[in-house]
Amino acid sequence: VLLGTGTLFETRERFLIYFQTAANGLTESSDVRLGGVKVGSVRSIQVQLDPTTNVQLIPVVIELSANRLATLTGETLQKKDEIFTDENIQQSINQGLRARLTQISVLTGQLIVELDFIPGDKSGFTFDGDPIAPYPQIPSVKGQIEQVFEKLAQSLEDISKIDIAGLVADTDRMVNNLDAKIGELDLKGISDNANS
């Protein structure tokens, strides 16, 4: 990936991403970054709600700049107007191009759309229904914070399955048995034998 600077006469392309999580902190004009470098911006954010299941999806339209993003094929840099061909887009998705929401400020809760290549990832989400816009879809994956909360929730669920009352009862039984065994020992006799 090569990066450039100019904005005059930029080749730009819009893409659609469906997120399955709340987008609190994402705004129109939020950055779209790849490798920490701004390569575009968010153009629109909506909410789609399935009234029968109450499932909500957050469709986000992003706009990428060819001047800031170029692909290399062997040693030849593709022309900027060829970067966003259907074939190149599909190849990038097949190679693991995914989008996630990433928090860039804990204080403000500001989110950006982060693009990344996750080779071998088959879990990216795309919406199979009628899209809100006729743009190519980039699959979305869960953000790092979401993954942490999911693992935490799973750990808490696993902990809640532990039979703590049973563990306490077993420990109490073991202490009582140990106490009884120690009481059965002839400590005075053992002491007298040791001293003689």
- Element-by-element helix/strand order: EEEEEEEHEEHHH
Tally of DSSP helical segments: 4
Count of distinct strands: 9
Can you tell me the overall shape? elongated
Distance between the termini: 86 Å
Structural class: alpha+beta
Mean pLDDT score: 80
Cα gyration radius (Å)? 29 Å
Biggest sheet: strands, sense, closure?
Answer: 7 strands, mixed
- Portion in beta strands: 25-35%
Kindly state the percentage of residues in helix: 25-40%
Low-confidence stretches: 1-5
Description:
With 196 residues, the protein is α+β, with helices and mostly antiparallel strands. The protein is built from 4 helices and 9 strands, in the order βββββββαββααα. It has helices spanning 86-94, 144-160, 164-184, 187-195, and strands at residues 12-19, 31-34, 37-45, 48-50, 55-65, 72-73, 76-77, 97-103, 111-117. The radius of gyration is 29 Å and the shape is elongated.
SSE layout:
Blueprint: E1 12-19, E2 31-34, E3 37-45, E4 48-50, E5 55-65, E6 72-73, E7 76-77, H1 86-94, E8 97-103, E9 111-117, H2 144-160, H3 164-184, H4 187-195
Parallel strand pairs: 2-9
Antiparallel strand pairs: 1-5, 2-3, 3-5, 4-5, 6-7, 8-9
